[in-house]
Automatic annotation (TrEMBL):
EC number assigned by the record: 6.3.5.-
Quaternary structure and partners: Heterotrimer of A, B and C subunits.
Annotated protein name in UniProt: Aspartyl/glutamyl-tRNA(Asn/Gln) amidotransferase subunit C
PANTHER family hit by this protein: GLUTAMYL-TRNA(GLN) AMIDOTRANSFERASE SUBUNIT C, MITOCHONDRIAL
Recorded superkingdom: Bacteria
Organism classification: Bacteria, Pseudomonadati, Pseudomonadota, Alphaproteobacteria, Hyphomicrobiales
Catalyzed reactions per annotation: L-aspartyl-tRNA(Asn) + L-glutamine + ATP + H2O = L-asparaginyl-tRNA(Asn) + L-glutamate + ADP + phosphate + 2 H(+); L-glutamyl-tRNA(Gln) + L-glutamine + ATP + H2O = L-glutaminyl-tRNA(Gln) + L-glutamate + ADP + phosphate + H(+)
Record carries keyword Calcium: no
Family membership: Belongs to the GatC family.
Length: 95
């Protein structure tokens, strides 16, 4: 995949990054170099290689999927300026 100047300008616009024409030409080369490296990674044979969670083998810490701090509705809405039926009431901002 090759990146052209129009693509760099579009990506910069989507990312809300201001770029000059000099930056566009420099970034085009940099993005093409990055994508070239990613394409090299696609050539690596990873058949039979297990996915890693870390560079050192370790068991993932897991917790039980249980509710541990429920029934605190009154505590949660206690500091709200206005509530209604245990919901926060906010001013209407859209007509």
């Amino acid at each position: 995949m090759s990146v052209d100047t129009a693509t760099v300008k579009r990506v910069a616009n989507l990312a809300r990054i201001a770029v000059t024409e000099d930056d566009v030409s420099r970034m085009t080369g940099q993005l093409n170099a990055i994508l070239g490296f990613v394409e090299q990674l696609n050539e690596v044979n990873v058949e039979g290689v297990e996915p890693m969670t870390s560079v050192t083998p370790m068991a993932m810490k897991k917790r039980q999927d249980v509710v541990t701090d429920g029934d605190k509705v009154a505590d949660i809405v206690a500091n709200a300026p206005t509530t209604e039926e245990n919901f926060f009431v906010v001013p209407k901002v859209v007509e």
